[in-house]
Amino acid sequence: MTKFTRRQFIRTSGSVIAGATVAPLAGLKNLTVAPSDTVNVALIGCRSMGFGDLENALRIDGVHCIGLCDVDRNVLEDRAADIEEMTGERPQLYGDYRELLENSDLDAVIVGTPDHWHCLITVHALQAGKHVYVEKPLANSIAEVDIMKKAANHYGKVVQVGQQQRSGEHWQKVVEVVQSGRLGKIRDVNLWGNFGYGAGAQPVDNSSVPQGVDYDMWLGPAPDRAFNQNRFHGSWRYYWAYGGGVQTDWGVHLLDIALWAMNVDGAPNSVHSIGGIFSGLNRSMEVADTQTTTYAFNDYNMTWKHTGGLEMGPYNRHYGIAFVGNDGTLVVNREGWEIIPVMDQDDHPRIEPVPFQEGDSSYHDVHAHNWIESIRGNETPNTPIEAGHLAASYAHWGNLSYLTGDTLKWGRDGKLVDEHEYADIIKPDYRSPWTFPSV
Ligand SMILES: NC(=O)c1ccc[n+]([C@@H]2O[C@H](COP(=O)([O-])OP(=O)(O)OC[C@H]3O[C@@H](n4cnc5c(N)ncnc54)[C@H](O)[C@@H]3O)[C@@H](O)[C@H]2O)c1
User: Fold this and answer.
1) Cα of 114 to ligand 1 centre, how many Å?
2) CA–CA distance, 98 with 106 (Å, rounded to integer)
3) What structural domains does the chain harbor?
4) What is the DSSP string of 46-69?
5) pLDDT of 323 over the 80 cut
6) Residues whose beta carbon lies within 6 Å of some atom of ligand 1
7) What spacing in Å lies between the alpha carbon of 26 and ligand 1's midpoint?
8) pLDDT at 361
9) I want to staple 408 with a disulfide (CB 3.0 to 4.6 A). Which of 110, 132, 271, 369 is the partner?
10) What is the reported pLDDT for 18?
11) Ligand 1: distance of its center to the CA of 45 in Å?
């Protein structure tokens, strides 16, 4: 039973950046909710994806939005009006998440800010005793994802990471097929994400801060820098201080599935990444528009590739994963999956082909439902902190190798070799008065 119309949902759902595709309404169970099952949520970072996450949560009986927080007053007012129209109740509005976290009626927060804010807000929310849904990538650096994992385990609250594909049935099916051995020995796992947005933004001059925006609070722990519309809403992901480009933005979604299917729970043997800003389009960006990262394992390779701006790719898909086995290749993305068999010399397929199977698109709703039911103690998160930590670490190792030109390796002690040489990339230097959290 859903609370809102499909029209309302589509009107307010997020952009296509980083896969915020429109999810149709899922036929979620109409639970009879006891007062003790009421979950009061608030959203921090309301403009795009976070608001989609909130809408998904609000479709579940017993979930109430009691607060919205954003550093852009214009976004805040618009979203408050949206919530009021949907629920008939106006949430309390905040410009500083620390005040929101003091609200003792609040059970849980959704963190929908740019990546450079995920760590501080998540750790502070856990310390305030709130459950968290934090968008992907878990954070914008390796040290931040490490401390977030520690905090999640230490404070014992429910943390769901916004790698929502794990809640999708066709992704679960694909993982099952890969793990069943049906494709034969897997020797190559290729991941690619060729999106139009990956080529950067049209350059614009610095300008004054728009009215209603607390830009100092938007920057938060990131270095002070003049305001530029490109380094702000939506397109912040092209600049290292706030995001990591397509490698982290979309990389985590696909790495998450690849690592899960291949049963990986630690570092690979090595990581090497090459690329640059090669499009020649003179767009505004710091991150790579063209990048190839190779993760070496004992008996297979895993590769991430993006060529921003070119909406085309292998198997006629502009993004996806190909699990290449001796007997067949499984190709998957959000649209669906198929198995292409290897043909023997006598032209016989080594395994049964599987024609294109359409993917289900209800996983955004299922993911929110799974988060709320985990808070209620009835389920456990489909994307726990460990999965968010692993996918983000792989993506950040790719960018670390790209930025330094070094091949990353791990010692017998499990530590990254020469880690101290990368200290300023691994751990951001937080701008005062913000300090790196400790747990
Ligand atoms: N899971 C997915 O498929 C998916 C899809 C898209 C985006 N995302 C993730 O969602 C997050 C948000 O991305 P977006 O595209 O919605 O960004 P956006 O720039 O459109 O929105 C971010 C919002 O956060 C606000 N904000 C910034 N600092 C804040 C602070 N300190 N306190 C409160 N509000 C603050 C901004 O004003 C803005 O309204 C990112 O981490 C992104 O990677 C996930």
Assistant:
1) 4
2) 12
3) 6-166+364-384 (3.40.50.720), 169-360+391-422 (3.30.360.10)
4) -SSHHHHHHHHHHTSTTEEEEEEE
5) yes
6) 14, 17-20, 44-50, 69-72, 75, 97, 112-115, 117, 135-136, 162, 164, 217-218, 220, 233-234, 236, 249
7) 24
8) 86
9) 271
10) 44
11) 6
